[in-house]
């Protein structure tokens, strides 16, 4: 572990940070125009907020959080379905954050308080182990997340999972979500910081078709503060040179092809289909569906769950979660932020999850919108 | 299917020392306060002061009960001793309440009681009264210990308060209202050791660590420090960690606190563990550390005493109190600035 730490120190080096800050300022001055950069990962938002990186950027450079928090984008109807199954006696296993996000009626945590058996696990392996250990109970793994967690589930499926374990699959495919945002001009985003661990799995390759259409700079980026500063510098350099391209800052993890083994495993188990991002829209090819061969493990088939996407009451009245998730507004622009919706009593998913922009901003006590360079 | 709100039931977070617990105390327990005492209940400090007597209570529900560097017995003495010491009091006597689960091994109980005896001796306090209850199997997790403690006013506190009079009008005890702009914030050693040690003692956590808990009585050290003077307030960063403590100070004193991330002492192994677990070291509980607000002209002497004491050898000045900022602000390692918020709960539950 100490070896890991000694490497990590470079990625938080104060002098390197100072040098990058200077170079960023220099380029920003030369470019003159306002540059809006979007990242699509809760971990990036955390790094940016936690290390105070926005306070280091010049006036005409803005970094905005886009859709990248798995808990935030999980449809309310999926949460409702999982909570209902928990109350019907099925043991529901899922990640900690997911238990606190409310669907339209309740969260899984609230279902547990009402007597449901809801268990927090760290990964699908825990669900498999529990189901094996307690063969007389029915287990459900609420499979939420991105392409980063989907391969582990696919791998377990191929290995064979116990009879009494089914899956409520709510995975989303990051390249399709970021790709749609790249192609859209609605948000006025000039460049993208791509989620390092997602790209580690998918590779940069799936982004190429979106890049060809949008010609917007994109840099696959790691999660240390120096990584993010470096990515911003690389983006500005591309803009200054007038040569947009797909670049890789996170070379210690990301390749063009990605994790081919993980992709093969995913391909064997899942098909891509349209995927609903809670409160935002249905994105083409952003959802995962179990292939015919594994349909017997699909909780939707097993428990007769209807496929639903948008619901009438997606959020509590007045909440602007969807706009926060898409980076259209900053959390303080939502009337509920830090008033009735707080980390200790969240109303919307972005305030529940540690990857949610609202949670990150609120726990860092941010009360003002970030300086907008373009509105 | 009816709807419930998680606010209607108690969750583990309500006992974790962060903002959930503060809300619960404000909503439910604060009604018990009638303003009695020099430091009454509603000040929500480490201990109450009635006349010249310091009085406090604490319950211990740690899992596992034996961990690297300590056990629930040692913890239940130091927890209460330190709460008294942080008020400037000198702990004298403790009560001991033990609730056991049916089937608890007698040998384990003896081991715990031996540890209580040894720690009490180390802290120079006496166990003077007690109570034992047993509950049926499954009603509680093995053992719960409660200790209450009595302390008196030492002459060292008189001296310390006297030194503060040169720069301010202090209260009679070490309370946040004594804190003034310009005071330096000192932490008496490396942070996060206890939480990481307890966590790594648990089965199935998936990481190993050689870190041992820092659990230790701080009353002796506090007397040495008050003898120097200049200490405006002291508090032990237990549940909720340094983050919760500084937030408390900022709210209660109405002043801002500025700290520098690069100055905060953290053992490499603890740093590695928090990286691995994705938790914030400032939110981790400690059981043998204090955070001090010290009048600037005494900082050199205080640091000298700390560095010569085994419980203070890694002490560091991590920041200062300021009136030009609000809340707790930290300069990060890369030079950015951010607020340090109050944690929701402890990222590692049941550590004390």
Automatic annotation (TrEMBL), chain A:
Keywords: Iron, Metal-binding. It comes from the Archaea. GO terms for biological process: protein maturation. InterPro entries: Hyd_form_HypD (IPR002780), HypD_1 (IPR042243), HypD_2_sf (IPR042244). One of its GO terms (molecular function) is carbon monoxide binding. The keyword DNA-binding does not apply. The keyword Iron applies. Belongs to the HypD family. This is Hydrogenase expression/formation protein HypD. It comes from Metallosphaera yellowstonensis MK1.
From TrEMBL, chain B:
One of its GO terms (biological process) is protein maturation. Residues 180-324 form the PurM-like C-terminal domain. Residues 45-152 form the PurM-like N-terminal domain. Pfam families: AIRS, AIRS_C. NCBIfam families: hypE. Belongs to the HypE family. This is Hydrogenase expression/formation protein HypE. It comes from Metallosphaera yellowstonensis MK1.
């Amino acid at each position: 572990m100490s070896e890991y730490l000694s490497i990590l120190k470079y990625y938080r080096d104060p002098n390197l940070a100072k040098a990058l800050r200077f170079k960023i300022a220099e380029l920003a001055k030369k470019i003159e125009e306002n540059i809006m950069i979007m990242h699509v990962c809760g971990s990036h938002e955390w790094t940016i907020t936690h290390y105070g990186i926005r306070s280091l950027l010049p006036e005409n450079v803005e970094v905005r959080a886009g859709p990248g928090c798995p808990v935030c984008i999980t449809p309310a109807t999926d949460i409702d379905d999982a909570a209902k199954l928990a109350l019907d006696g099925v043991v529901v296993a899922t990640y900690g954050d997911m238990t606190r996000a409310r669907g339209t009626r309740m969260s899984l945590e609230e279902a547990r308080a009402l007597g449901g058996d809801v268990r927090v696990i760290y990964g699908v392996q825990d669900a498999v182990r529990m189901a094996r250990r307690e063969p007389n109970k029915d287990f459900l793994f609420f499979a939420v997340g991105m392409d980063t967690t989907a391969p582990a589930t696919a791998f377990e499926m191929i290995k064979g999972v116990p009879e009494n374990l089914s899956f409520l699959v709510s995975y989303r495919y990051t390249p399709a979500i970021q790709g749609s945002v790249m192609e859209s001009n609605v948000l006025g985003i000039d460049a993208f910081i791509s989620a390092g661990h997602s790209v580690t799995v998918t590779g940069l390759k799936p982004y190429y078709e979106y890049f060809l259409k949008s010609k917007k700079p994109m840099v696959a980026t790691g999660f240390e503060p120096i990584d993010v500063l470096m990515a911003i510098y690389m983006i500005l350099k591309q803009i200054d040179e007038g040569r947009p391209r797909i670049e890789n800052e996170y070379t210690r993890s990301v390749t063009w092809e990605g994790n081919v083994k993980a992709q093969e495993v995913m391909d064997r188990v899942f098909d891509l289909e349209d995927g609903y991002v809670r409160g935002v829209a249905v994105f083409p090819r952003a959802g995962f569906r179990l292939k015919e061969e594994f349909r017997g493990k699909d909780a939707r088939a097993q428990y007769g769950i209807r496929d639903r996407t948008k619901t009438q009451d997606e959020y509590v009245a007045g909440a602007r979660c969807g706009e926060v998730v898409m980076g259209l507004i900053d959390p303080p622009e939502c009337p509920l932020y830090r008033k009735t919706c707080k980390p200790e009593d969240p109303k919307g998913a972005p305030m529940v999850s540690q990857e949610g922009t609202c949670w990150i901003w609120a726990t860092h006590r941010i009360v003002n919108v970030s300086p907008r360079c373009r509105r | 299917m009816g709807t419930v709100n998680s606010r209607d039931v108690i969750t583990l977070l309500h006992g974790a020392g962060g903002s959930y617990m503060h809300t619960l105390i404000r909503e439910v327990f604060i009604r018990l306060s009638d303003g009695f005492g020099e430091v009454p209940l509603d000040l929500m400090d480490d201990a109450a002061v009635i006349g010249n007597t310091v009085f406090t209570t604490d319950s211990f529900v740690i899992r596992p009960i034996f961990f690297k560097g300590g056990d629930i017995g040692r913890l239940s003495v130091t927890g209460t001793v330190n709460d008294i010491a942080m008020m400037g009091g000198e702990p004298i006597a403790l009560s001991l309440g033990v609730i056991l689960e049916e089937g608890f091994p007698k040998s384990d109980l003896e081991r715990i009681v031996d540890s209580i005896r040894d720690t009490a001796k180390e802290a120079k306090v006496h166990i003077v009264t007690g109570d034992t209850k047993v509950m049926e199997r499954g009603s509680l997790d093995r053992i719960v210990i409660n200790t209450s403690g009595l302390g008196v006013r030492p002459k060292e506190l008189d001296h310390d308060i006297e030194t503060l009079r040169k720069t301010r009008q202090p209260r009679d005890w070490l309370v946040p209202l004594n804190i003034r702009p310009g005071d330096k914030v000192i932490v008496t050693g490396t942070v996060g050791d206890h939480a990481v040690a307890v966590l790594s003692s648990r089965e199935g956590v998936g990481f190993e660590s050689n870190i041992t808990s820092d659990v230790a009585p701080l009353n002796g050290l506090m007397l040495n420090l008050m003898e120097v003077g200049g200490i405006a307030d002291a508090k032990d960063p237990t549940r909720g960690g340094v983050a919760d403590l500084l937030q408390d100070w900022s709210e209660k004193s109405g002043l801002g606190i500025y700290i520098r991330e690069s100055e905060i002492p953290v053992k490499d192994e603890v740093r590695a563990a928090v990286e691995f677990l994705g938790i914030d070291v400032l939110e981790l509980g400690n059981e043998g550390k204090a955070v001090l607000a010290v009048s600037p002209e005494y900082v050199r002497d205080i640091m000298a005493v700390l560095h010569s004491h085994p419980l203070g050898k890694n002490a560091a000045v991590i920041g200062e109190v300021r009136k030009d900022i609000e809340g707790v602000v930290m300069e990060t390692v890369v030079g950015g600035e951010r607020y340090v918020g109050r944690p929701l709960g402890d990222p590692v539950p049941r550590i004390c």
